[in-house]
Amino acid sequence: MFQFDHLTVPDIRTPLPGPNGAEMLARDKLYVSPSYTPMYPLFVDVGSGSVIRDVDGNLFLDFTAGIAVTNTGHCHPEVVAAIQDQAAKLLHMSGTDFYYRPQIDLAEKLAKIAPGPSPKKVFFANSGAEAIEGALKLARWHTERNRVVAFFGAFHGRTYGAMSLSGSKLVHRRGFSPLVPDIHHVDFPRACPEGGTCADKCRLIANVEDTIFKRTCPPEEVAAIFVEPIQGEGGYHPIPQGCLPALRALCDKHGILLVVDEVQSGMGRTGKMFAVEHYGVEPDIICSAKGIASGMPLGAIIAKAEVMDWPPVATRARSVGIP
Ligand SMILES: Cc1ncc(COP(=O)(O)O)c(C=O)c1O
Fold first, then answer.
1. Torsion sign across C-alpha atoms 231, 233, 237, 238
2. Distance, CA 125 to ligand 1 centroid (Å)?
3. Mutate-to-test residue for ligand 1 from 70, 262, 264, 301, highest number of ligand atoms within 8 A of CB
4. 22-72: pLDDT as tens digits
5. Fewer Cβ close by (within 10 Å): the C or N end of the chain?
6. Going by C-beta distance under 8 Å and a sequence separation of 6 or more, which residues neighbour residue 20?
7. What residues does ligand 1 touch, defined as CB less than 6 Å away?
8. Does residue 180 lie within any of the structural domains?
9. Domain match, 74 and 106 both
10. Are residues 102 and 194 in the same domain?
11. Is residue 5 part of a domain?
């Protein structure tokens, strides 16, 4: 394990990139997809806690944590030990086909720490985008409705469902149509007219109830509203205090599921395990990833048990009438 505690950070000793970084950059241009868009000449070698050492020996303070992924810092000794222990025992098991104690243990833990009194169940995935896809499928399955509401400024991932729910930048969509249909975007409430005590009259509700629900999007056809408690890609905007409860009430009024994307805001990043806990709201589905495994590729959806009612694949014939 690397320890940088005794060193002064940052410590930049070469031009950036340094000679080893420059050599990597040339090979990256030859072989790695140009769709990746690194913004900084940082050629990472090793990390410990909040410190990164690059391939030329320069030390950086890492304020990004892999875009909110390494919530326990880089290479936390307990995380490293757990990975090493597991790697020596079993590298893969098919969670769809077999039972495995760590899968059950983690599901139990997540179900118990998720906010709200309802019993919960957990579905595992490999990434945040995959958790979002799972939530979209579950919402459509459970409600037997097609439409979904999401917010401008939102980022939910790069797969087709997640991309269709995102409302952040054209670059995520341009050239990739057709996307998933029947997803309606509305403005994200960045500030409440009532100055923080915006119960049922906040702009968010006006947006959804008075515009799309009256003009383009019949509420009885809406399966879910997807929302980030804190928009990340949109510029780090916490949803104003009254708006999540108001959104919860709107969902309850129309039989819509409230899906909270905690991929970035969750796992302790806001001082509570889930950001939604700051708002006193129990979502129907929580999407988690990133910090959930502090660097390993893991995602999960945590849903109310009554919502996670999709049956085993073998019996999933309900809506098409297959005997
Ligand atoms: C709020 C949010 N949701 C979903 C995702 C997608 O997660 P992943 O990159 O693990 O697919 C991200 C990624 O940045 C995110 O910030």
1. positive
2. 13
3. 264
4. 999 999 999 999 998 888 889 999 999 999 999 999 999 999 998 899 999
5. C
6. 43, 55, 56
7. 67, 127-129, 132, 155-157, 228, 232, 261, 263-264, 289-290
8. yes
9. no
10. yes
11. no
